[in-house]
Amino acid sequence: MFTRLFFCLLFLSIHAHASDFRVGAAKVDITPKDGTPLGGFYRFRGSAGVLDPLYAKTIVVEKDGVHAVMVVLDLSGTVRPVVAAARKAIQEQCGIEGDHVMISGTHTHSGPQQPRGSLMDDITKVNSPPGLAYINALPALIAQSVKEAKAKLVPVTASAAVGKAEGISFNRRILREGQQQAIWQPQKLTPKDRPAGPVDPEVGVLLFEAAGKPVASFLNFAMHPTSVGGGVKISADYPGVFTKLVSERHNADMISVFASGCCGNINHGDYITGKRRTTLELGTALADATDAAWPTLQQLKTFQPRIRSQQVTLKRRTYTEEQIAKAKDMAANMFTKEFGTVPMAETVCILETIAKQNEPLLAEVQVIAFSHELAIVSLPGEIFVELGLALKKASPFKRTLIAELANGSIGYVPNREAYPLGNYEIVSARGEAGSGEKLVEVALKLLGEIKAGQ
Ligand SMILES: [Zn+2]
């Protein structure tokens, strides 16, 4: 039996030729040492202990020498200097062009912080020796995961399906009768409340199989990974459970990668029942939704990867003298007084915007496709679900997966209609109203170009 399998594999490898569509996947541990500053909240937390490890997970896709790379980090997001350094290392070590590499973060709130060049760096102490040691080591670890994935390239078939996970994600912005401003993250709705927008229940599933055996999956869902809470223990949050279960159930050796969808305003806090689902419950619900969709996986007709990437210049917000003075005053007292998340977020955003007003607000939009039926879009921020849904709907591809917090981050990216309703995500948005729509417009243009084979 084993001999037969061996000869079978040998036969396959001999007969794999250059024009095959190939995929390789790998993961490299990026769990920080104790004492590393964590991200996700407006306060300092030094890590102490590990609930579950963090990874840089990579899928390399190749045909006829053209590569496309999807890397997802179990981190709160990505920052440009780390992305640039990682792309450079990948180019040098793997011979893959930097702009063929998409690097995104899952948005776990229980992982290390990365420097953002704002007051946030002082609040989280990310520029302390343990914080910098972590950041400086990260690009090489990302390149390592790409190197390992590339070394494992095998001929594959690709297939895709869409699952549905209803009732686990919630639009965290609420409109209350008679109130102008949106309410943020209520515990439970009152009869006067209704969600300010939709959710996206779709679970995107992209599977790669070599000789019928799953070797890599790329999974996509829109919900903030905040279920572990604001403690000091490291965790990949629900994406860690979700990807682990999908691999365990289908092939323990498979690398399952989770890309965070457009979840800027989507949380797991269930204000209908008042229940808070655990990390395990959320990850299991998504793995179950994936399993339910598994029999509907449809094979994709693959072609050589096509990649487009564009830097978009967005307009920064503008503020009144009064708002600026108030922010400066609060910043001066930030380390001695408690202000709450929303005023802290607003102050950080105003002062960053003032300090960088002569710097362009750059946002990279990237698209990768290797089939007429499916494309992967990346956007650099915490994108509101309305924008993600609009992009999926208008996309010329049957299935469009979206990785947010990719290739850097400009923070929250609300849809235009949300700006006048205010509250947390709006006061922390760097771009003026319309920025999100501009990103969607550019993504659609790139999708159209790729679809047309340009
Ligand atoms: Zn967030």
Short structural description:
With 454 residues, the chain is an alpha+beta fold. It has eleven helices and 21 strands. The structure holds zinc ion (ZN).
Annotate the secondary structure layout:
Blueprint: H1 2-15, E1 21-29, E2 55-63, E3 66-73, H2 80-94, E4 101-105, H3 119-124, H4 129-151, E5 154-155, E6 157-164, E7 170-171, E8 173-176, E9 183-184, E10 193-195, E11 202-210, E12 213-221, H5 238-250, E13 255-260, E14 266-267, H6 279-293, E15 298-299, E16 302-314, H7 321-333, H8 341-355, E17 361-371, E18 374-378, E19 382-383, H9 385-394, E20 399-403, E21 412-413, H10 424-427, H11 435-451
Parallel strand pairs: 3-4, 12-13, 18-20, 19-21
Antiparallel strand pairs: 1-2, 1-5, 2-3, 6-11, 6-15, 7-14, 8-9, 8-10, 11-12, 16-17, 17-18
Bound molecules: zinc ion.
Structural write-up:
This protein has eleven helices and 21 strands. Helix 2 (80-94) links the parallel strand 3 (66-73) and strand 4 (101-105). With 454 residues, the chain is of the alpha+beta class. Helices cover 32% and strands 26% of the residues. The longest helix has 23 residues, at 129-151. The chain folds into two domains: 19-302, no CATH class; 317-355, no CATH class. The radius of gyration is 22 Å and the shape is globular. Bound molecules: zinc ion. Zinc ion is lined by residues 107, 224, 382.
